[in-house]
Amino acid sequence: MPVVVTAEYVVTGTRCSPSRRRRLAGFGRQRLSGCGQTRRGLLADPQWQPARTRARPTGGSFVLTKVFPIKLKPGKQADAEAVVGAFSPEGPQQEPGTLSFRVYRDPANADYLLFVEHFVDQEAYDAHTGSAAYKEFVAGQFAELIVEFVEIDHELVVGI
Question: Model pTM greater than 0.85?
Fold first, then answer.
């Protein structure tokens, strides 16, 4: 499923003409200062509403979020990062239902990675975990490097 990124840029009141607001609608906050106010003035104006951008799958606003804290075997951080680096272009970057695939390291905690993944729906996640790349890299090579992992589903509460 394709992802639609929508953006709303709203200036209320009469400071800008309607045609000026339409021309500025395609630009971020920094361009809204062209209505004769500085950014500071716009932000202080109670009638000005900040830009809101949200990514959502077409047909609804549901996004499946998976978070995996992963404890690695001692001394396997570099190996794990290499496997993840090889997996990303072969798996998630090729999957239309994968909205984002991010892997974080904790500089204060050796042998640990945190995966944060977003999918358009459960079917997209199932396709991700059923792919040949997932089986080769994650279920195969990466599984050899971990002590444990926890799969945690999350629901978005606030987003900007």
Answer: no
